[in-house]
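User: My instructor asked us to take a sequence, write out its structure as tokens, and then describe one feature of it. I'm not sure where to start. Here is the sequence I was given:
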Amino acid sequence: MNQQFSFLPTHSVVPPADLADRLIEEPDEATVLQIIQMMEKLLKIRRLTAESRFVDLTSDIRKAFLFLREFRRRFDFDLPLSAFFDAPTVADLARIATTRETPPLARLVLLRKGDERVPPLFLVPGLGGVVFELLALSKEIAYGGTIYAFSAPGLDGVDPPPSDTVRFGQENFDLARHVYPGGPFRFLGHSAGGVTAFEMARHAAARGAKVDFFGVLDTNFAERAWPFDIWLSFMVRRAGKAGSSPRDTAGEQQKAQSEPVNHRLGKAVSRLAASVGRVPDKVHRVWRKIKHRYLTDPSSVAFLKSDPYYIPDLPPKFQRVRDAAIGMAARYKPTFYDGELYLFQAEFGDALACDPVLTWSRLVREIILLPTPGDHITMLSPPHVSAVASKVSICLAEIEQARRQKSACAIPA
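Assistant: Let's start with the prediction itself. The structure tokens for your sequence are:
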């Protein structure tokens, strides 16, 4: 599939609604000008208009956060990340600044319109449910079908965030089936979004729907869901690496051999003493991890703040959803899925997690492993996102070709 499909303006599709009907007030011209100036300065782009859309101009989520911070400073209003999709134009954002009301959150967002004869691709963002992190990937994927992405409830600050992974996956599958009733279904999730996509695939299979593509982008489960032997092995290795000194180079070793014996002996004793001195710290770290896995309530603030994925001082509405997602991931207990998994594994992976192959191999019938460049985060950013998108595109092209060949054989002569 060499044809590239243009990126269309993002808009809400579930439930179907016209943004103009929800935001009737005419935007204030002075406010429109302010927002244009904010965007032009941040993105270093000139001649924007009231119809310019932030998501058409950048896929950099860091710039999105900077824009939200400046919006809050200027208008004293906490704009949710979901507004970039539910109120995408400068004029829409100006209406929000004036009315101080955001449109209803769209749980399913249309990223790119495609051929209706090709099954759509449904993307699931990572921890926090922010569609913005998938923008670059959606623009790079060479795919003939429509591309959708799911937004997590609560990002607008109105609805409660999801609290149960199984139910959340079921809700997302229902939304997918609403816009594409027939199947087959194609799901791809990044990080924690891969776990949600996993539940979507399981729900589809339980209801007799065909899933011909289920993929994850460097997805693993929360520590509490790892089998005990995998968790223990990871913790022992991590404790052993913590505080260890780098190995001597060959030159340093040769230099050490030329030193007097008493000097070398003194250094060896010092290293041994330092190693012994680090033992209490290592034991304390292991104890903290044991408490985090077994003894702390996942719904508690103590668990949240001790979790390695906790990040403080985020935009309030996003913070609320991300914090809830950490507890939700810890409570989740995965069960087997009798299907294939396309595992796009980042070269440098996630330093906070074990090898995802170890956990997924016990939960799916087959793993198709596809190494990609970058790490857990940078795999979705330039320049690595192009390579990731290329591998996803090839997989989808092969699956679509097989589907068409099967359909052609099924047609009676």
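For the description part of your assignment, you could build on this observation: DSSP finds 16 helices and eight strands in the chain. Try explaining in your own words what that tells you about the chain.
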